[in-house]
Design brief:
Strand order of the largest sheet of chain C: 6-7-8-3-9-10
Structural class of chain B: alpha+beta
Family (chain C): Belongs to the ABC transporter superfamily.
CATH topology of the largest domain in chain C: Rossmann fold
InterPro entries (chain C): AAA+_ATPase (IPR003593), ABC_transporter-like_ATP-bd (IPR003439), ABC_transporter-like_CS (IPR017871), ABC_transpr_CbiO/EcfA_su (IPR015856), ECF_ABC_transporter_ATP-bd (IPR050095), P-loop_NTPase (IPR027417)
Radius of gyration of chain C: 24 Å
Chains: A mainly alpha, B alpha+beta, C alpha/beta
CATH architecture of the largest domain in chain C: 3-Layer(aba) Sandwich
Strand content of chain C: 15-25%
Structural class of chain C: alpha/beta
Distance between the termini of chain B: 34 Å
Shape of chain C: globular
Helix content of chain B: 10-25%
CATH superfamily of the largest domain in chain C: P-loop containing nucleotide triphosphate hydrolases
Number of helices of chain C: 22
Number of strands of chain B: 11
Strand content of chain B: 15-25%
Oligomer: heterotrimer
Order of helices and strands of chain B: HEEEHEEEEEEEEHH
Number of helices of chain B: 4
Pfam families (chain C): ABC_tran (PF00005)
Largest sheet of chain B: 7 strands, mixed
Helix content of chain C: 25-40%
Organism (chain C): Asanoa ishikariensis
Largest interface: A-C, 54 and 73 residues
Distance between the termini of chain C: 53 Å
Keywords (chain C): ATP-binding, Nucleotide-binding, Transport
Radius of gyration of chain B: 24 Å
Number of domains of chain C: 2
Number of domains of chain B: 2
Largest sheet of chain C: 6 strands, mixed
Amino acid sequence: MGSTWFLPRDLHPAAWWVWALGLATAASRTTNPWLLGLIVAVASLVVIARRGEAPWALAFRLYLVLAGFIVTMRVLFRIIFGGAEGSTIILRLPEIPLPAWAAGIRLFGAVSAESVLGGFYDGLRLATMVVCLGAANALANPKRLLKAMPAALYEVGTAVTVALSVFPQLAESVLRVRRARKLRGGTGKGVRALRGIVIPILADALDRSLLLAASMDSRGYGRAGVATTRARAATGVLMIVGLLGVCVGVYATLDGSTPRYLATPVLVAGLVIAVLGFRAAGRRVHRTRYRPDRWLLAEIVVAASGVAVAVVMFGTSRVDPTNLNPSLITLSWPLLSWPPLIGVLIGVTPALLAPPPLELEKAPA
Amino acid sequence: MRMRFIAAAAAVVLTAVASPAYAIDQSKGKPGFCPSATGVTVVVDFQDLGGTTIVRCFPSASRGTGLDALKGAGFQIAGVQRWGEGFICRVENRPSAVEIVPAQGKQNYRELCIDTPPGSAYWSYWHAGNNCPWVYSQWGIKNRDFIPGGFEGWSFSLNKTAKTNPQPRIAAVRPGAEGRTCNATEEPKPTTNDPNEQQQPQPNTPPGADNGGGDGDPPAAEPPPAPATSAALPLPRPRNSASPTAANPALSVAFTGGEQAEDVNKVLRRQSGASPYAPWVAGAAVVLLAAASWWIARQRRRARKA
Amino acid sequence: MITLDHVSFWYRGAPRPVLSDVTLTIREGELVLLAGRTGSGKSTLLGTVNGLVPHFAGGHLAGTATVDGVSTRSRPPREFAHLVGMVGQDPLAGFVTDTVEDELAYGMEQLGVAPQVMRRRVEETLDLLGIAELRRRPLRTLSGGQQQRVAIGAVLTMHPKVLVLDEPTSALDPIAAEDVLATLARLVQDLGTTVLMAEHRLERVVPFADRFLYLPGDGSIVDGEPAGVLAGMPIAPPIVELGRVAGWSPLPLSVRDARRLAEPIRRDLAAGPAPRRPAPAGTEPATLTATGIVVRYGATVAVRGVDLDLRSGTVLAMMGRNGSGKSSLLWAVQGSGPRQGGTVRVDGVDPVDLPSARARRLVGMVPQSAGDLLYLESVAQECAAADRESDATPGTCRFLLDELAPGIDPDQHPRDLSEGQRLALVLAIQLTAAPPVLLLDEPTRGLDYNAKAALGRQIAYLTDQGRAVVVATHDVEFVATVADRVVVLAEGEVVSDGPTVDVLGGSPAFATQVAKIIGPDWLTVSEVAAALHQEVR
């Protein structure tokens, strides 16, 4: 095991998603800027250390930009709409009088440090969650994630794959036809010019889709699997009910103010029902996977490190909620205790222990 | 640049930690009842949470909101994160984040002050004119003005319904003013119609719905003004001329002026187990992680070029 | 392995059957070549083998087609996936996934092959086709030949007993085509796979074929040994035509056989004068002069400072492998494509400076996918639109179309025309603007021998009118018959430029079959035939 551990390979995408969702869950439980900043730093380090060179991996910086934008907007909103929460006024803007129907909305006016800070904390929490999702996107190959989908969702996966490859073709088609139009002197405007472009593109797309369908058909797509209507309906109901249960359960778990009986029991019940549904749907599919992503020890380590961060944050919210949501009443630097700090640092494990990604072979220039 | 920022941050942390803050900000307000009609008396009754009831005075000659009164009297409060100080979730760090509140339907409930507290465990807000019965406020604290010479009351409602919400167990009677009649005026109109700033959860029929009034000087018997028209909210009922008066002050529970209360910040720090070093370590970790990211990125870029 | 028993096929509403009463048996391990004009039913016949006809294509099928004892009537094509591997003309359009490895595995995933077996088969197939180094590459970045080999590999991994290929080399340059054909030959030799292949360019494939099916176009089928069938066919590769002219029997099918037989002819011809060709006109001023053309796409340089001059009444053939910059150069010269450097002069102006309606009066172009220019419902409407666009006398386009390809029904939909007819229509539309220079990008793609001969005549018609014509193509035999001058591009640079006979005759990669048999001075059968006739006289 030891000698092959660090050989480059692509980790199971679900492992990265579990890790990232763990961090995101942790971030959702706190507004402490120390912890949020730490989570962003941890996620960034892991992304930089373990991402591949595919285009989706390079999009991580866009998520960082988006995160910055979110924080800025939150603070700006606090300044524009009623920022006088609290007593430390740092800015006095002229208040814009609004008509009576807009009562309850305030434009500008005094801005307090507490309210700006509140906006900052709140925005930072959302931004951190966005960064965590960006990290998952950068680390997990979306196409491999599609492949790792349960057999029941195979059709969806195929549709997405085909759609993804159709878009560049369509774009190419548009370019080609527009160029061809110029050869006919087609500088005309309006419906006729549009038609001159749209008709050949549609004809092209239709031809291609027919060819693709023929190719898929003759290569065995949709080959096996006969299910009765009743079995299909039962499967569908199971899946929908299960997923609803999961949604409600997850919401209740994450939102501390929802009744507890909606949390774990509903979540577990939903999961069980959904798994049953997937099993039932998967059973009528006789397909195999080429080089399926395996779930090895490294995957467990990565996923567990993310889960650990979330667990520690949940645990400390039981004993130490004060620091996770710093008070905004008395302006002071947010306090911090050791458990959540150590907990977040567990999230950096993948940067050290996950195997490095495969280098992408480049197409010749 | 970064180092200077951290140094500044550290300085602020240290001052925040070192500043001698008390539970009751003794620099604001005065312990006990207001001696005169100037100012407003604020009563905080912890009820089932336990602890002594606190009475303090906000000796202000000008008008102000309920929030001004509460803060001006020197109480340490916390509003929920979502609504800010418009919705008080803790007074004097009670219920604290580590204290389990035996609220019905909620196992191991702790007040985290993130969202509005449940109807089974929250601070109910009351007011009263001098010598008048307590009235459950229809409005949020930022939306109503206190009654000069009157009372503001905070009473923790635990597992009570709208009908059984507990009044503060201190009679709204200034010492030396016993036996006077309640000269009720209409409750001051709210400044906004924002329902968010209304007191929630709202009882259906507030006990003693009749409005108390101040004994403003001079205590002129004003004719009851026409009820204010407000589309969004139930109107305060017009004053009953045969108004009841405050409960017998002799039945009030014991109270203090909060002089002995422990410093809230100190309690908080003790309860949270916060370490003064942890923020430093967190800052250092962020810097370290950023440096590591930069270094790894450089290494990988070089490896790719090679 | 494959049995067709009295198979007939009609499209709904068609007056006559595409196939009528076809009966044949193909044994295991045969490489069967299928030839015939466009529209003669080749694709239909191929489709019957795995049930795409009629399950997918529609129409009515009579008689039975069985593969390995299983009738195609009873099951849809997907149930034949493990028996019949189908490879289409355009590999890219048939790809389902986006990387080489995934594509190879796709069919096996559908069949439910065990993962270990799949892994092993993918590795074996990668080696068998010589594409192991491409395994992680996105399919879109591969060259045409690589794509075609991946498409073949993608069906081979299912270990089909029959491989059916529809014009697998039609879009490939000669080298890539050789690769693909060599791969197929190896499959037949080593694995005993039965291969059924339709192909236009017989000269490449005939040497490999065990058996030859010719579809004359009336629904019937001619079946037999390649040499035998070819002797009676109106269409034939140059080697066969040469054999006919020389009166060889049996007809040789490979260059090696033909060289042996051609010994006396070579001697005779060597004694006589070299074939006469019109001397390249070097004195008259060029109609179009292009200097220092540079085309770049980001960091990739497609055309690297190419100079070109075109003279009226001559045909320039532009050759080079896929991606060598031929198309980019043509587009840049025409003015519609990107051009980062260099100048073009036609009549003293640069077409890039003109609006496209005026540029096309100087330089006309027929792009690779000629159908992109057509967007109306009938030939008549297209022609009317062309007259309007060019401010030409109404009827000009139709007149030109009749000159190029007589007898096209004006009410036909352009998409229903054959490849050759559609090309003629686009050519007519572009000629309506009367440009002195005409650029044709890969016009021979998908054309059968007849259509190519027709295109050759059309090009001759253009040069007779004094136009300068450029033809970018892979088709060496076609170049030998039409071109006066050949330019070979590689990596965006001109690597050779000269009269056709010098460029084609002197290079083994570009030599025509006749040149390989007789000698570098002789490029086409007609030249040899003319020389032989003179000698006889």
